[in-house]
Amino acid sequence: MCLGLAIRLENNMIRKRKAQQEMEEISRMLERVLNGECIQPGEIGYEDTLPAKIRYQIRRISEKNQGVEARITRERDETKALIGEIAHQMRNPLAGVESYTQLLEGEISGEPGRTYLRALEQSEQRLHFLTESFIKMARLEQQMIQIKKTTDALADTIFSAVLLVQKAAEEKQMEVEVTGAEETKVWHDGNWLGEAVYNLLDNSVKYAPEHSKIRVVVRQDEMYTRIVVSDDGIGIPKGEENRIFQRFYRGSRVTGEPGFGLGLYISREIVTLHGGFMKAKRKEQGLEVAIFLPV
């Protein structure tokens, strides 16, 4: 009797160990599917058991996921290519509109002709800005640009970006204050990083009130160089800190100001190509956006 009980206990232990091993194998397969791997036919076994049926179902899910991901990737790449092509095709007609607008300036002297001409110029400028933004976005997403890094002070890069927003800032009687840039050197592409900083400054000028100050602070520690742009503008609601870097996303508080939701997205892509990342931080009044670059 004791021998029979011992045998039954041993058999139970063997079954439990086998069931545990099968569950662990199923768990590993699910983890691989979650990581985007494809389960091969030879891995599922052909036994007529519940674990074998579960492995077969996991493989089917894996195959479907692979097909969906491939289709999404293909459609996304086609959309990116189409956007880039449309933007390039728009360049020549816009150049023609700009040329004819300039010719008309010398021909039209009275109102309401001058008013219509100014409206045409503004529309042309917005279309030109949108076209160039689409082209930059397409080049970044399709990895068609080359980041040429050199170890230089950030001063030239940041002050070049400040100059691009200087006129708009002066019209609103705003001050742009830069600290820490002269003393800080970092490995970067001045042209492209300057574009990233410009987009941050442009947003601050648009959404901060007149007579306010935009602050650009550069700090460096053992791991990162930080370029922090802060303003006293409309800010963002809680929960939008990451969404503002999405393509075509415009904050829920944005009203009346022209824009397409591409600036911060382009900045993030540029910073990513530099091996860095970006963060946004809400303030009691305004917004703080930081670029982190590896030292």
Automatic annotation (TrEMBL):
It comes from the Bacteria. Signal peptide: none annotated. GO terms for biological process: cellular response to phosphate starvation. One of its GO terms (cellular component) is plasma membrane. Its EC number is 2.7.13.3. Residues 9-78 form a coiled coil. It catalyses: ATP + protein L-histidine = ADP + protein N-phospho-L-histidine. InterPro entries: BphY/WalK/GraS-like, HATPase_C_sf, HATPase_dom, His_kinase_dom, HisK_dim/P_dom, HisK_dim/P_sf, Sig_transdc_His_kin-like_C. It holds the Pfam family HATPase_c. PANTHER family: PHOSPHATE REGULON SENSOR PROTEIN PHOR. It is found in: Membrane. SUPFAM superfamilies: ATPase domain of HSP90 chaperone/DNA topoisomerase II/histidine kinase (SSF55874), Homodimeric domain of signal transducing histidine kinase (SSF47384). PROSITE patterns: HIS_KIN. Residues 85-295 form the Histidine kinase domain. This is histidine kinase. Keywords: Coiled coil, Kinase, Phosphoprotein, Transferase, Two-component regulatory system. GO terms for molecular function: phosphoprotein phosphatase activity; phosphorelay sensor kinase activity. Its main location: membrane.
